[in-house]
Amino acid sequence: MKKITVFFIALTFMGCAELQKVVNQLPQGGILTQEQIGNGLRQALDNGIQHQVTKLTSKDGFYKNDLVKILLPEELQAVDKGLRKIGLGNLADEGLKAINRTAEDAVKTATPIFVNAVKEITFNDAKNILLGADNAATSYLEGKTTSALYAEFNPVIKNSFSKVGADKIWSNLISKYNSIPFVKKVNPDLTDYVTTEALDGVFTMIAVEEKGIRNKVGLRNTALLRQVFALQDNR
Q1: Structural contact between residues 65 and 56, judged by C-beta atoms closer than 8 angstroms
Q2: How crowded is residue 79: how many other Cβ atoms within 10 Å of its Cβ?
Q3: In this predicted structure, what is the pLDDT of residue 162?
Q4: For residues 117 and 109, what is the distance between their CA atoms, to the nearest angstrom?
Q5: Neighbours of 216 (CB within 10 A)
Q6: 134, 87 in Cβ contact below 8 A?
Q7: What is the rounded CA–CA span in Å between residue 48 and residue 34?
Q8: What is the mean pLDDT of residues 16-42?
Q9: Half-sphere exposure of 202 (CA within 13 A, CB side)
Q10: Minimal CA–CA distance to 234: which of 122, 123, 130?
């Protein structure tokens, strides 16, 4: 009876082609239930949120992280270069810091949305995530939360431009740039751009954590994570 149960669970989880590999990797003393597998994936995503996303909400969480630092959009790169050429590099730096500060402020609204999405993981979702690429869990979360996060981030970022003084900095910065003789005048709306960049940064950092858990046994900091991802290791 036990062998039949093992066979059924393994078949449900991976399919016939990988049945033997799963059986070989089942933990000693029992099998993993569908609920345990789902909970293991939830723990992995929770780690990404706890260990990586929260870093982005601190001062310079974006600005001093080369993986997610928000640079100027293409149409404003001329502004940056133009100001530096006339000795206003410090002003250009303040402009960059300001847009990154708005992202740091917005990310604080992300956690509840992520928590709800993680709770909704089904066994079928978990199976596809576990057998997927190094960023499969991140891609799942991205698909489930992007629309809600954009709706939350956009007004926060719009307000943050005022809150952190970015609106005044950029008004001054663009005014200075537009006063340079013979340059093409600019007046872009940065809200949508920074919102999108902030979202990209969030998912980039979750993917960093997920890849670590998948590839480094030492980062699997609970017994359940070690059991669940052992199934992935030898698929």
Answers
A1: yes
A2: 24
A3: 77
A4: 14
A5: 9
A6: no
A7: 22
A8: 58
A9: 30
A10: 130
Q: Which amino acid is at 135?
A: N
Q: Are 228 and 130 in contact (CB under 8 A)?
A: yes
pLDDT tens digits, 174-189: 777 778 787 777 655 6
Cβ–Cβ under 8 Å, residues 139 and 116: no
3-state SS string over the chain? Answer: CHHHHHHHHHHHHHCHHHHHHHHHHCCCCCCCCHHHHHHHHHHHHHHHHHHHHHHHCCCCCCCCCCCCCCCCCHHHHHHHHHHHHCCCHHHHHHHHHHHHHHHHHHHCCCHHHHHHHHHCCCHHHHHHHHCCCCCHHHHHHHHHHHHHHHHHHHHHHHHHHHHCCHHHHHHHHHHHHHCCCCCCCCCCCCHHHHHHHHHHHHHHHHHHHHHHHHHCHHHCCCHHHHHHHHHHHCC
Output the pTM of the full model.
0.73
**Rounded distance between C-alpha atoms, residue 48 and residue 45, angstroms:** 5
